[in-house]
Amino acid sequence: MLRVVVLISGGGSNLRALLERSAHDDYPAHVVAVGADRQADGLEHAEHFGIPSFTVPYGSYPSREAWGAELLTTIQEWQPDLVVLSGLMRLLPAGVVEALAPAIINTHPAYLPEFPGAHGVRDALAAGVDQTGASVIVVDAGVDSGPILRQERVPVLPGDTEHSLHERIKPVERRLLIDVVRDIATGAIDLAAARPS
């Protein structure tokens, strides 16, 4: 059984989908803990499913590196096989990524390498494209630049707003995440082969 720690900053809709799926006996991964960089609404999902949670508040530390060191220590206490960034809206320090790589993945609401960064949906609309997408990647030291594990296109419809487009991308993100975690657990995806260079 693959041991997973999930890190969030917000509502945790991807987290909830993963918790719901991993509650089934036929799913080969289990979320052992949920962490956040703030008091995030998504921590309620962990409580609902009886999953331990922790918070390492970014503002409580003198530097990003100090925060990252504490976060890494806390993550490693759970001995995860995989760390999932699920809406964590903060770049991890390089030392944290190096310590966890390649067993650290992230979802992104765009068809990478198109529209990386915190505003992928807004940027797609601003560019006037007729399609964007969702991606699951291995986290590296860059911004949404790691090896792509799976992705899928999502059309941009006439009249789409940032909210309406994001709401159509989210279910695709959730499905891709659930599939990728399953495939990592079964060995169908070899993270060592996808290790960032």
Automatic annotation (TrEMBL):
Record's keyword annotation contains Repressor: no
PROSITE patterns: GART
Record GO biological process: 'de novo' IMP biosynthetic process
Annotated Formyl transferase N-terminal domain residues: 3-181
GO cellular component, one term: cytosol
Residues involved in N(1)-(5-phospho-beta-D-ribosyl)glycinamide binding: G12, S13, N14
Keywords, comma-separated and alphabetical: Purine biosynthesis, Transferase
Protein name stated in the entry: Phosphoribosylglycinamide formyltransferase
Gene behind the chain: purN
